[in-house]
Amino acid sequence: MGRLFGTDGVRGIANEELTPELAFKIGQATAALLLPSRGKGKIVIGRDTRLSGDLLEAALVAGICSSGEDVLKAGVIPTPAVAYLTRELEADAGVVISASHNPSEYNGIKFFASNGFKLPDVLEDEIEKLVKKESWKGKRPTGAKIGKVFVIDDAVERYVNYAVNTIEGDLDGFTIALDCANGAAYLTSPAILRKLGVKVLTFATNPDGLNINHECGSTYPQFVQEIVKSHEVDLGFAHDGDADRIIAVDENGEEVDGDFIMAICALHLKRKKVLPKNSVVTTVMTNLGFYLAMKEHEINVVETKVGDRYVLEEMLAKGISLGGEQSGHIIFLDHSTTGDGIVTILQIMATLRDTGKKLSDLKKVMKRLPQVLINVKVKDKTALKTARKVWETVDLAEKLLKDKGRILVRPSGTEPLVRVMVEAETEERANSIAREIIDVVEKELG
After folding, report:
1. Contact 51/104 with Cβ under 8 angstroms?
2. Are 335 and 162 in contact (CB under 8 A)?
3. pTM of the complete model
4. 17-61 tens-digit pLDDT
5. How far apart are CA 204 and CA 206, in angstroms?
6. Which sequence positions are flagged as catalytic?
7. Cβ neighbours of residue 204 under 8 Å, at least 6 residues apart?
């Protein structure tokens, strides 16, 4: 058994890599490490719309209950809703069964502590050690000490009411296109927006267990872009499968990714004098154009490694309230303890309302340098660290670029991929350099 935890929990092909047996043991380990030693604890569990969700939820619940702890089932609901409900219901932990933006055959298990924040690496490491320890069987109480399962009947209603109150006033007068990715937000996001007076044209809201993220969602923005171009709407948004991120589309059908969203919101919050320390946290994947824009407006940028959990850790450590990733994971710490797609949508729309401008105008705050990001499927992504020829190729390319671009080569945290990112003055040059690096990666690791 290889490393279980990636950048966002445990993830793999359901019933092959992420088996019910593994989910059961994860449930046991979670109960042992995250819940109180005296008396029964309680864990909130939510999931997305994948067919394998029932299977893994049943196994996970069995593992937790067999350890003598109770489960509060929230059903199909966004990842940030589980973080919220964990806090709201004073649970000891929260668990989400989802593989986010990945295809339907994948699934995952990720965790929140009682305060609604994702678990630090050290706690995930402890869970992993217990799961892998063959001699450990967990506690097995009997009789009245066995855990029970309770259903949170009003989980969706609670989250809707919470999200609506993350902005002041309403959003009357807007018409938007909303792609819910056939995922966890297909009920909540339309309800939240309509409650605020938005006219919502919904798409990808008929999940069948297999169509989550299929030619829709934040990793397939072409879908919502075409909708915006063919319908009379003010703008569009696309969730991912578990709704902790979004990609926006302006009124012209042009994509507005997380870098632009952070730039727009950072500037607006600074104008309102509610941007602590005039700072924002982002990752090494953020486009160089973002840094240049923030420098122009005298906003400090703090950089972390890829993963919204690491963005959040830096935000908490430095007292910064805004952070995120190019992929659309945006954290508004004044409102949520994790990336929240619908909260991000509301913040963008409130900015449009307050400024009276269109999204195409607001995104002019930054100019994106040509960036190429290519995923290379490999046999062993961990071998990248010692792949000498790959790093020699990268070093040579960086010397040629000097200070007029960037290169980032890293293993994916959730998939058997190596990600190659190149920024340069022209797209042609970025593609050429990326191709050279990819050829070596494929030869050495493919």
Report:
1. yes
2. no
3. 0.88
4. 999 999 999 999 999 888 766 668 999 999 999 999 999 999 999
5. 6
6. 100
7. 179, 180, 181, 182, 183, 186, 211, 216, 217, 223
